[in-house]
Give the backbone structure.
Amino acid sequence: MQNLAIAIHGGAGTITPDSMTPELEKAYRKDLAHALNQAYQLLEKGGSALDAVEMAVALLEDSPLFNAGRGSVFTKEGKHEMDAAIMCGKTLDAGAVAGVRSIRNPVRLSRTILEQSDHVLLSSYGAEEFARKYDIEFAPEEYFYDQHRYNQWREVRDTDTFMLDHSKERKFGTVGAVARDANGDLAAATSTGGMTNKNYNRIGDSPLIGSGTYANNKTCAISCTGHGEYFIRAVVAYDVSCLMEYKGYTLQEACDEVVLNKLVKFGGEGGLIAVDGKGELALPFNSDGMYRGYRSSGREGRVAIYKD
């Protein structure tokens, strides 16, 4: 066995059966399964963990169902500002973007920063200039337009209220992936459109290495989804890694300690996906639901939305 493993997420929060139509649930499951299986097949063909997480996240960015890429929510100005990050567990190299507009797949720009820049995090127009230099694909404003998201932004655009993702319910819109490849290397990637009606160029945890995204072959790869301010203050992704490295926790023990104990104690809601060097997976969340999927060597792939 090569211990191949991959997990993906599409956001967490107040996600319950009574808030979902059968048609919408079917659509979510279809897009999650497609991203999961395509990325896993890449691993089976010898692809790297870095390639797999980039592919999975890009496919989720292409779906209007998730608050990332094409499905990104509207800002206070009626625009789209996207954040993303990707990290290699073998080298600890990372690339990230914050507040970019018109980038079709922010995760692909993050990967290019990882490979072509001496920097880790680029933002706004500077990141977009970098994207042009390396022929990263842009998309027109209408590509990111979704009537449902527009209607919900219109409800709050004249107020100082922001919404967590695209609903009055608490939904944290982020997509992400973690993977272990045949060489035993780990990788993580995360992408988000942030909060509806967000102002002042707000940036969440997704592009921050150690908060929303982290990968280290010695411990684990992590991608988070939740109320970003809490995940930033708790340095969630790195905290899981630290518990494994310095305390000897297993992956599941470390994830449960951070998500189900430490975060809960100071009001942090959400979850994460994680994989360790053995290919073990963990997908804890302290909210009502989390769009998620996972697959590993010798096990059939599975997608889920609600608590088991």
Summary: Residues 165-169 have pLDDT under 50 and may be disordered. DSSP finds eight helices and 13 strands in the chain. The first strand starts at residue 5 and ends at 13.
